[in-house]
Amino acid sequence: MEPSQLKSNKQVIHKNPWFLGILLCIFVVSVLASIPIEKRKYGLSQSNLTTDYTGLLPERIKKIVKAGDRSEIQEMVKEANEMGYHISIAGLQHSQGGHTYYKDNVVLDMKTFNKVLEIDKQNQTIKVESGASWEEVQEAIQPYGLALKVTQSQSIFTIGGSLSVNAHGRDIRFGPMAGTVREMTILTPTGEIKTVTRNDSEEWMKYVFGGYGLFGVILDVTLELTENDVYTIHTEELKTNEYEDYFANLIRNDDTSMHYARVSVAPNSFLDEMYVIDYIKTGKVDHKTPLKKERGARIGKLALDIGRQGGSLEDLFWENQKLLIKSLDGDEVTRNNAMRGNSAFMEFTKPGRVEVLQEFFIPVEHYEEYMSDLKRILPPNDKNDDFKIHNITVRYAAKDDYTYLNYAKEDMFGLVILIQHGLKEKEIHNAKTIIQEWTDLTLKHGGGYYLPYYHYQSKEQFRKSYPSWEMFQEEKLIRDPNGVFQNIFYDYYF
Ligand SMILES: Cc1cc2nc3c(=O)[nH]c(=O)nc-3n(C[C@H](O)[C@H](O)[C@H](O)COP(=O)(O)OP(=O)(O)OC[C@H]3O[C@@H](n4cnc5c(N)ncnc54)[C@H](O)[C@@H]3O)c2cc1C
């Protein structure tokens, strides 16, 4: 090419904004496409070690039995009573403290036990087998204009797994998840199949819900549903010390059905700033809007990875999150879609490190003092620390009278925390020390912590958080005299 021709081509490139725009787009798309969204490697495996979501507790098991029909499961439970082996029950294994397996014993894999048995549009109920995921339930009920009353922020869990931890989410009106079950069929530890309700004198539901698979197999449940309402999203930025008043006002206002908040973990506004997201009734019900599919996983992961660096990059991440949330203000969303948060962007697969969840519950009226005390034990900037906090969301968990091992002894805020730390012994020890200090502070404020996650807490902290543990254990010995149902979680705490 002649030098003069080269020069004129360069001028074309410089002067043509379209050309530059296209180049930029190609660059951005190729950067985004190269962000790996790897799936964590965890789950059941007979020949190798079995783990759950964090992979922190690898263990070899004897065998996995896929749940077939209910009489086969019943036979297995009877056999375990006679032959003296243990069974652990697994849903999708998002619990993180070895709740779904036990060394050298049998795992009952419930994922295949997932049929929708009946939908009653008039009475707004669904009867479904317990291995179904919330996603599968939503697919079945959406065409009827129906939605779940209570579920988690994501729909990637099984019904049996969620009820066994008595999960909670964004809904602020329908109380604990356990309260949305009208009836259920269980297989007891001695091998009987029973249909039970909340008013049964034997109180099976109170032990099975929040019972971590230790009181029998949930076979099917009849869930109460509600309308697939359409909501307007309202978002607002707040100071942490304004939140209690904001929430008190919100809970008095019947129009807000769902709500959650996020607290800053960025150095410049650490635990001082928050934003809230409310879902306000429009009076419309939806039958048509399709269930949303997971989108934007790569860009979400890129943003989260920037935040994961800590320091000023975390400040940048927080400012961007606020802009993103503000852009949602005034949007409309269906109840079903508000209950289907994205999850793929959270995948974290860095060798030598782990990302875990912890959740602390704090009585609603202690929130402000608690947050201010928390600033004394956590560094605002964890850029150079091994133990890093990436995210804190706040949920409302209404007082729970439905389960014995309950975390919401009164109306609570749940702080859901995403933490990353290294896997060397001293790094795990350091994480444990910080989380135990955090747990002590929470207990001092009349709160407690959530049990589906990894057990950094001591046995003593468990007993203080769950004062009814003794009764739970006594009842376990009575209802499961041969210890048929067992898992690492039970072994550690009891
Ligand atoms: C990314 C992420 C987000 C989360 N978000 C939330 C949230 O918003 N709110 C919340 O409350 N929790 C949340 N959790 C915790 C989650 O709800 C629990 O871990 C839940 O148990 C997951 O369901 P699962 O199907 O994976 O259950 P699993 O982990 O497979 O099992 C959990 C427990 O249930 C028992 N179990 C499973 N199936 C049955 C059955 N059919 N009968 C009897 N027992 C059974 C198991 O033995 C085990 O003890 C989250 C977890 C992760 C990893």
Can you walk me through this structure?
The chain is an alpha+beta fold and 494 residues long. Helices cover 33% and strands 24% of the residues. The chain contains 15 helices and 17 strands. An 8-stranded antiparallel beta sheet has the order 13-10-12-11-15-16-14-17, sandwiched between helices. Strands 4, 5, 6, 7, 8 and 9 form a 6-stranded antiparallel beta sheet that branches. The protein has a 3-stranded parallel beta sheet with strand order 1-3-2, covered by helices on one side. Strand 4 and strand 5 form a beta hairpin. Helix 8 packs antiparallel against helix 9 and helix 11 packs antiparallel against helix 12. The longest helix has 20 residues. The chain is globular, with a radius of gyration of 24 Å. Flavin-adenine dinucleotide binds next to strand 2, helix 5 and strand 9.
Q: Tell me about the biggest sheet?
A: 8 strands, antiparallel
State Rg. Answer: 24 Å
Question: Which range best describes the helical content: under 10%, 10-25%, 25-40%, 40-55%, 55-70% or over 70%?
Answer: 25-40%
User: Into which percentage range does the β-strand content fall?
Assistant: 15-25%
